[in-house]
Amino acid sequence: MRRYKAIIAYDGTDFSGFQIQDNGRTVQEELERVLTRLSSGQVIKINGSGRTDSGVHALGQVVHFDLASARDTEKLRFAFDTQTPDDINVLAVEAVEDTFHSRFNPHNKTYQYQLTTSRAPNPLTRRTSFHVPKLIALDEMIAAADLLVGTHDFTGFTASGATVEDKVRTITDVTVIKTSEDELSLSFSGNGFLYKQVRNMVGTLIKVGLGKWPASRISDIIAAENRDLAGPTAPAHGLCLMEVNYRDDTKTS
């Protein structure tokens, strides 16, 4: 058997998330269907670096899979890419050691959340950006984002469906950047994120940006470990998994 790592991009709008489930179309299902066809009907299973929720996009999702024999990686990438549906692209494929695991090898992830702040929504970004007019406290929002950086127990930003007990994570960088007159980009990098953590942090930062809460609200939520103190969960369509970087210095996007 030969193990391969692939970088996958997808528009999450019409998917019920990354992971296969009983009802709803998923990214994993589509990828495995194509790989099984390319393997003459031998069932191929893939493992992803993580599970994006329904409606969440990706430009740098990483998966790995095993094939029965060695393949030319560019020919494999081309065949894989051209047979996936239009809302999935296979950006790169490389052979890796059998010990590589896309989920369990130590890595850092970067997510980006897009906000549109114009008076009226932009129809061209409606699938990838959340419309939030009247963000009047950008400086306070930036100050709040800075308070998320570090190693914390993020229970206060975790959705009720989270199954892991250890909710301590390290966030290495959070940026809030005005990319144009009507667009704001929020970027989060860290060693892992809890269920809906990024979207809950975004919902809280939006409350700060609207002038409803001070930046110090972030510290209060972290200290109290109370989800009820945080803002609402931001919609999925504004979120994108940008890259996954493994700690062996192999950049994967």
UniProtKB/TrEMBL annotation:
It comes from the Bacteria. Substrate binds at residue 111. Keywords: Isomerase, tRNA processing. Its EC number is 5.4.99.12. Residues 6-105, 144-246 form the Pseudouridine synthase I TruA alpha/beta domain. GO terms for molecular function: tRNA pseudouridine(38-40) synthase activity. It catalyses: uridine(38/39/40) in tRNA = pseudouridine(38/39/40) in tRNA. The active site is at 53 (nucleophile). InterPro entries: PsdUridine_synth_cat_dom_sf (IPR020103), PsdUridine_synth_TruA (IPR001406), PsdUridine_synth_TruA_a/b_dom (IPR020097), PsdUridine_synth_TruA_C (IPR020095), TruA/RsuA/RluB/E/F_N (IPR020094). Formation of pseudouridine at positions 38, 39 and 40 in the anticodon stem and loop of transfer RNAs. Homodimer. PANTHER family: PSEUDOURIDYLATE SYNTHASE (PTHR11142), TRNA PSEUDOURIDINE SYNTHASE-LIKE 1 (PTHR11142:SF0). Belongs to the tRNA pseudouridine synthase TruA family. This is tRNA pseudouridine synthase A.
